[in-house]
């Protein structure tokens, strides 16, 4: 997968993305990240990239010409128009679902703004989508672009060692991840839950799933509310956690009872 980042600060992006998992994915050629310095495309003799806002007001606005020319340079180079995303606090919120959708794109162009924003006509002319990483305002879009590249890239085949690496993690199925422990078995008087040392795989799976439910309910009640209850029933069934009275009859049977087990039916206490 390829990302082209249009920015005034290419070094900040390069420094971060050369590290760790994403750095290795870049070395292996699974992920390509190019940074394009918008200033290099300015036709102004002083390489200016911003100007005062029409209508007055504080701050400066990024002018359209250097951004458009930088974008056109990428488009000409690759011979098509990749999906172009403007990192902006006005965009839709970046979620795990957004990341899953974007990982199917072969090539993305990410536009990072600065100052008071960019000339609106650039958004109309080249931007397909605006994405925000949260309801707060950053000094520029670079951090947001790095966040997006990181969370999309790790879903691309071959970047993590296996599907296992993210199939249980937070947000994968709408729930937060279960707690993780490693050695030593006791740290400052705090013991690793006994069940994890038991070697009983099925019980461990069940315990972990119940922890996911409990944690999501406690830490992110908003996610817990949204958690897909239909999917929940399937998961419960797979874990053998569906209460007996609600267990589904075999498919094809006349009176297939609709699964109605709510999350509250399966609490860690039950
Ligand atoms: N640029 C400035 N603030 C931002 C935000 N919250 N998300 C994405 N891009 C931004």
List the helices and strands and how they pair.
Blueprint: E1 2-7, H1 10-17, H2 20-28, E2 32-37, E3 50-51, E4 61-62, H3 64-78, E5 83-93, H4 96-102, E6 107-112, H5 120-126, E7 129-132, H6 142-153, H7 164-167, E8 186-187, E9 190-191, H8 201-219, H9 221-226, H10 229-238
Parallel strand pairs: 1-2, 1-6, 5-6, 5-7
Antiparallel strand pairs: 3-4, 8-9
Helix pairs in contact: 1-6, 3-5
Give short descriptive properties of this protein.
single chain, 270 residues, alpha/beta, Alpha/beta knot, Trp Operon Repressor, Chain A, 5-stranded parallel sheet, two-stranded antiparallel sheet, 10 helices, 9 strands, 36% helix, binds adenine
Model description:
The chain has 270 residues and is an alpha/beta fold. It has two domains: 2-153, 3-Layer(aba) Sandwich (Alpha/beta knot), CATH 3.40.1280.10; 168-243, Trp Operon Repressor, Chain A. The chain is built from ten helices and nine strands. The chain has helices at residues 10-17, 20-28, 64-78, 96-102, 120-126, 142-153, 164-167, 201-219, 221-226, 229-238; strands spanning 2-7, 32-37, 50-51, 61-62, 83-93, 107-112, 129-132, 186-187, 190-191. The strands form three sheets. It has a five-stranded parallel sheet with strand order 2-1-6-5-7, with helices on both faces. α1 packs parallel to α6 and α3 packs parallel to α5 (120-126). The protein starts with a strand and ends in a 32-residue tail after the last helix. The structure holds adenine (ADE). Adenine is lined by residues 87-89, 132-134, 136-138, 141, 144.
